[in-house]
Amino acid sequence: MKIGIIGCGAIGSFLSYIFKRSGYDVVVIEKNRGCKEQKVIVENMGQEVIKTCGYEDLKQELDYLIFAIKAYDLDEAISLSKNNLKAKIAISTQNGLYSLEKLENYYDAASMIIYYGIKKVEKCHSIYFGGNKIVLGCRNRDCRNEFKDFKLRGINLELVDNIEPYRWEKVIVNSAINPIATLYLKHNGFILENKDAYDLSLKIANESLKIASLLNINFKKDPIKELIDTIKSTYYNYNSTLQDLCMKKEKSELDYINLALYEISKKLNYEAKYNYFAYKSVMVLKNLIKANNQICKQII
After folding, report:
1. pLDDT tens-digit series, residues 162-193
2. Hey, what long-range contacts does 80-88 have (CB within 8 A, 24 or more apart)?
3. For residue 107, how many other CB atoms are within 10 A of its CB?
């Protein structure tokens, strides 16, 4: 089974490592030309040597093409891949909304929801902080049979007949964790340690849950319980939004989480004011960090 993984950041390194150690033929795809061997390190798990190739250098058809890049980089990745890479099915790993819909315009597509805390150190080098599962499925069809041969060593992989409830569950969880832990410049677990942070996190989560209910999303589990469980399982992880801000990235995944929820809420005649406040507050913090990177000294 041939698996291509676009990107070798936090999630890309994690997925390339676990697929390789599980016995699959893995290639990391990047913008650089040519093919070479690359050591992939996931601290607290292990390391593997994996082949990397440029978009134009990979000639064979892939069984699965995993887009392991940030939501704000997805458009460029699709543009580079759609004319150069052939795959039976594409898989989105992006947090937030809109990404799976974009992939469906070009591929038979699925979404992989990752409940693991991973921090990027550098290209193809990350740190694993814990977690509990990966959920995989499609949006408008039952595609479990297409993944029946996936066996990931040491990873709890759940195949589902409809990914939408799980995708929205993760959106709700991230909408309540990412901006709040980021505003405090703290690890995820701080939300459970601080009453004000916890109260605001719950207000955002319940507001996000209201939007999902207006869209008739039927959850398999209680998203609020999943929020608490996720904070506990990634207690010492600095979330991806905070990592991006501290690396002075211009774009933020919150455009596809809190801002997206606010935009959707307006179309439903409901105002997601806590989500909008959280988004705008993080944008203010981003400008402060750009002016003084010492703010992030303990994180990076």
Report:
1. 999 999 999 999 999 999 999 999 999 999 99
2. 80/31, 80/55, 81/6, 81/29, 81/55, 82/106, 84/55, 84/56, 84/58, 85/4, 85/29, 85/55, 85/58, 86/61, 86/62, 87/4, 87/61, 87/62, 87/63, 88/61, 88/62, 88/63, 88/64, 88/146
3. 21
Helix H or strand E encompassing 297: none
Same domain, 60 and 190: no
Name beta bridge partners: 36. Answer: 52
pLDDT of 300 reads 56
* Cα dihedral across residues 104, 241, 233, 19: positive or negative: positive
Instruction: Give residue 262's pLDDT band: very low, low, confident or very high (50, 70, 90).
Output: very high
Mean pLDDT, the chain, as a whole number?
93
In contact, 257 and 174? CB cutoff 8 Å? yes
- Looking at 162, 184, 207, the residue that finishes a domain is 162
In eight-state DSSP terms, residue 55 is T
Given pLDDT bands bounded at 50, 70 and 90, which one contains residue 91? very high
Average pLDDT over residues 119-146: 91
Q: Are 120 and 259 found together in one domain?
A: no
Structural domain range at position 284:
165-296
pLDDT tens readout for residues 195-209: 999 999 999 999 999
CATH number, domain of 179, equals: 1.10.1040.10
Do 13 and 116 lie in one domain? The reply is yes
Q: What is the CATH number of the domain that holds 119?
A: 3.40.50.720
User: 149 and 17, same structural domain?
Assistant: yes
- The CA distance from 84 to 61, in Å, is 10
